[in-house]
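Appendix B, example 12.
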Amino acid sequence: ALLKLIGDLSGAPLDPEYRPGRPGDMRDSLADTTAARELLGYVPRVDLREGLRRMYEDFLRFTR
């Protein structure tokens, strides 16, 4: 889903390339910001799609 989203934002559809895991690679992630929200009052300002869009625009600006 993330690869598709990046492809959609960039206008260049991407095909996944599956390879064996490398030592130190994270196989699964259950990242959760609940503790940050409860302890620190953290609330994301943008959703994933908007954050990726902004990052991609910055990437283009700095690589030209």
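The two ends are 28 Å apart (CA to CA). Helices lie at 2-10, 34-40, 48-63.
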